[in-house]
Amino acid sequence: MTSGDGEQLVEVEQAGSGRLLHRLLLAEVPQPGRWLELEGTSYLVLQRRHRYRLVQGRYRLARVVLQVKAQRQPDDARWWRDRWVIGDPSCAFNALSPLLRCAVLPEGPCSGCGHHRLR
Question: How many whole angstroms separate alpha carbon 70 and alpha carbon 117?
Answer without folding.
Answer: 31
